[in-house]
Write a structure and sequence with these properties.
Helices cover 38% and strands 33% of the residues. The protein is α/β, with parallel strands linked by helices. The relative contact order is 0.13.
Length: 263
């Protein structure tokens, strides 16, 4: 009887040990899962740039600016633009690791350089401009960074620090006017998450259209037929996201907000 009871006790201990080991494995797997999930959420903020945000000396100025963008899943995210202006021979140097983003952005950089030279009156043949955009492969490129690149170039040439709580989206034209872009609502959400208080958008784009769906059913004899209907709804981007959205027509107007000369 004692031997049988001892065997039973050993089985219980083995079972308890197995349960404890299984529990440890489950807890470890859950901890790993939530850790990876948190890391994925952090990556949406695209905080890959860890250098100085701004410095200006007699020989060089470095400026950083946050850019709103959209990833491959349609989510609003932020990337980091870095522009350096140093005495040189008029070269434009670009460091963008995402080649697809670069293909869509190179024209914006050329146009931003032209507009910045015209606005500041600087002879750009005496400067080298270095552009870095820290954007991973999941970011969808496009010309919507043009206005921001222009503002950052002006800041670098004039040694000015742009406000951290202002962000902008919009294309840039040769005369300094700002053109329309897509995904305003998603970019406004990215600006809000990046702690911006003012989001500058092209003219007529402070409103957006969202689409709401609903079921409509009708009865025909003994049959009941339901269809999904889609209705457009015009919204205020600022009210929807909870951020001040301001329309600007050109770069000079946008400069009033970035450099603290707002009337």
């Amino acid at each position: 009887m004692k031997r049988g009871k001892g065997m039973e006790d050993r089985k219980k201990r083995i079972l308890n040990i197995a349960i404890i080991i299984l529990a440890i494995i489950i807890v470890s797997e859950l901890a790993l899962y939530f850790s990876m999930k948190q890391e994925t959420e952090k990556q949406k903020e695209i905080k890959y740039y860890h250098g100085p945000k701004f410095f200006s000396t007699e020989n060089a100025t470095l400026v950083t600016l946050k850019l709103p963008a959209v990833d491959s899943e349609g989510n609003g995210v932020t990337t980091t633009l870095v522009v350096e202006a140093v005495p040189g021979t008029g070269r434009t140097l670009v460091d963008i690791d995402n080649i697809l983003f670069w293909a869509d952005t190179q024209h914006s950089i050329r146009m931003a350089r032209l507009v910045a030279g015209n606005i500041t009156g600087k002879n750009l043949s005496h400067y080298d401009l270095v552009y870095s955009i820290h954007a991973p492969a999941s970011i969808i490129g496009g010309p919507s960074a043009g206005a921001a690149i222009t503002i950052a170039t002006i800041a670098a040439l004039e040694g000015k620090k742009p406000r951290d709580d202002v962000m902008i989206t919009g294309t840039i034209n040769h005369d300094g006017t700002i053109g329309p872009v897509s995904a305003i609502l998603e970019k406004a959400e990215a600006a809000k998450q990046a702690n911006a208080t003012i989001f500058l958008v092209p003219l007529l784009q402070s409103k957006d259209v969202v689409y709401e769906t609903s079921q409509h059913c009708e009865t025909f004899g003994n049959a009941r037929i339901c269809t999904t209907e889609t209705r457009p709804k015009k919204i205020s981007v600022g009210e929807k996201v909870g951020i001040e959205v301001i329309e600007v027509g050109d770069v000079r107007e946008a400069m009033q907000y970035f450099f603290g000369n707002r009337e």
